[in-house]
Amino acid sequence: MLKILIIGLSKISLMILKRISHLSQVQILGVLDPESNPERSDSIFQDLSLPIFRDLHCSQFAQPDLIIDTLDLSSAEMSKLVDPELLVGCQYLTSAAFELIMSLIKDEDALLRCLKRVNQEKDVILNSTHDGLIAINGEGVITVFNQAAEKIMHLEAEACIGKPVKDVVPNSRLHLILKTGRQELNQSQALGDTTIITNRVPVRDYNGDVVGAVAVFRDITDVQSLAEELTDLKEMRVMLEAIIQSTQDAISVVDENGIGILINSAYTRLTGLPEEDVIGKPATVDIAEGESMHMQVLKTKKAVSGVRLKVGPKKREVIVNVAPIMVDGQLRGSVGIIHDISEIKKLTDELNQARRMIRQLNAKYTFEDIIAESKIMLAAIQQAKRASQTPATVLLRGESGTGKELFAHAIHNSSPRADGQFIRVNCSAIADSLLESELFGYEEGAFTGARKGGKKGLFEEADAGTIFLDEIGKMNLELQAKLLRVLQEKEVTRVGGTKSININVRIIVATNANLERMIQEGTFREDLYYRLNVVPIFIPPLRKRKEDIPKLAYHLIRKFNQEYGRSIKNISLDAVQILMAYDWPGNVRELENSIGRAIINAGLHTDMITEEHIPPLGILPAMGKPEIKESRLGIQISEYDILNKSLKEVLDELEKDVILEVLEHTKGNKTDAAKVLGIAIRSLYYKLEKYGIQ
Description:
Elements: E1 2-7, H1 11-20, E2 26-32, H2 43-48, E3 52-53, E4 66-69, H3 75-81, H4 84-87, E5 91-94, H5 95-128, E6 132-137, E7 142-145, H6 147-153, H7 157-160, H8 165-168, H9 174-180, E8 184-191, E9 194-204, E10 210-219, H10 221-229, H11 233-246, E11 250-255, E12 260-263, H12 265-271, E13 287-289, H13 293-300, E14 304-311, E15 316-327, E16 330-340, H14 342-362, H15 375-388, E17 394-397, H16 404-414, E18 422-426, H17 432-440, H18 458-461, E19 466-470, H19 477-489, E20 491-493, E21 500-502, E22 506-511, H20 515-521, H21 526-532, E23 535-538, H22 549-564, E24 570-571, H23 573-581, H24 587-602, E25 608-609, E26 628-630, E27 636-638, H25 639-644, H26 647-665, H27 670-677, H28 681-691
Parallel strand pairs: 1-2, 1-4, 2-3, 4-5, 17-22, 17-23, 18-19, 19-22, 24-25
Antiparallel strand pairs: 6-7, 6-10, 8-9, 9-10, 11-12, 11-16, 13-14, 14-15, 15-16, 20-21, 26-27
């Protein structure tokens, strides 16, 4: 059970308590507020019997697993209120982070409600018609069976959906429509003692391929019986008018001259045209855009269906089916059935927009979002593009702030799995005890507080998509062994389970750690390293691609103009030179921070960033540009490299620089470069692959 301590008596803390107090896997230890009122009488505190503290000490309080800080206290303020021993191993969550999480959950709930509403409205539309409707998919299995079809066929939809159409309707021809792709209109068919008239049409995708078929039919047994018994045309007309008026479909009838003789109330509701504007008028009176299908049918004596038009003063978008009326072989007019698709189209557009939003939330960036002009960065991008077209595991390496996650997004969006899930996992942000169940899922009863029915892991959620494991070097050895099994066997086993689940997941991992050194120290498995290192991509630090800084600066200025409501148009040459002179140990993330501060310093009425607006660069203002020192061998090494990198990392960078210079000298000729370097050509190719040099 997750033990939570909330800091601060505020509206946010009350919101948090209302959100999480009902969760069985959560225990709220209390509320800490140095200015609290012991007689506070908020109902939620009374209902939950929550204690309120001014400060905490080990002897009187259980150690929390998570602290939600709504006051955003500093470390010094926190140490005054809480015994440091209670903070060991404890996770922190700020109020801003919690509000962001709740906002995302709220957005997701809204999308789900929208999708549910679309499905409900679709069912209402399908079941509101008196025509029976059966739809099948490409395998001939029934997917839609509306209420009118239940009534006509005396069958339950629940017993029919999911079964082959031939098993439900032995004399069905829908499976033949799948093969021929040709529609069959106004076909008579016997269903036991019932006779129906049916239209069978194929369903095509955007490429024109047949992916299903639909039959729309109506019971005409009674109509046939009446036609045989009734000879009085007037009585038959009254009967037919009653039938037409009772249907929810909009119907219009014209005589052989194309003059309107009959419409129903559904027609008036759809088009907005009353009887006096239609009856006795030409069939073209209701057409807003398109041609009258009544007139076409009267000319050709052939039925038409699925024609899109816009009708009435409001230009409602509709689909019309029109058939000729033949009496004793003579054309006596035509009848049209009009279906409103404007609402369905609107709901479909909303659903497609929701799907696009979900995909955008999953993976936002593409290769077009990566700003680069330097050869070394362009080479990394090209290598990533080639890797994206394969299912191979990709290892992104580079310092913090170089854009590893940006590359992961771009690789997914450029891959054949772009329509699949993109799951992001920061291995350093989740406790080891929780990371296993998050990645692999768990079975019901696997541990105290486990969800009833168990839970899918992130690997299962990412099936047919991509999972991005950031900070892979922070994963403990036990989880490394399980990850190795996933890579080898393409299957996962949930916590507390014994059944293996096959998965089809593309894995991208990232780290800023020295994995080779971790292998020597025994903190990273060597076999896992070789499984992950299939396609290594080294993302260079900003100090190695300073020619990208001007373009990055302009990109960031445009971004912050939108966020801050500013209108900065340019950056001075002196300011750019300052940015170019600095080595950026924090890489692009640090550059972004500096540009944001410069825009704030520039004020509201300035349209150019100048030298005076650039904030002091470095972790401390006094640091300035990292000092460049010359080694005894005459090699230029920055003070930052000396203080923050291992000997192997420094030597690797020097070796990479030497290789690049020699290749430039030999104009890319690898054989000549190997001779200049005094190494075998095979060794040179190995080093080119090691350093990601193209």
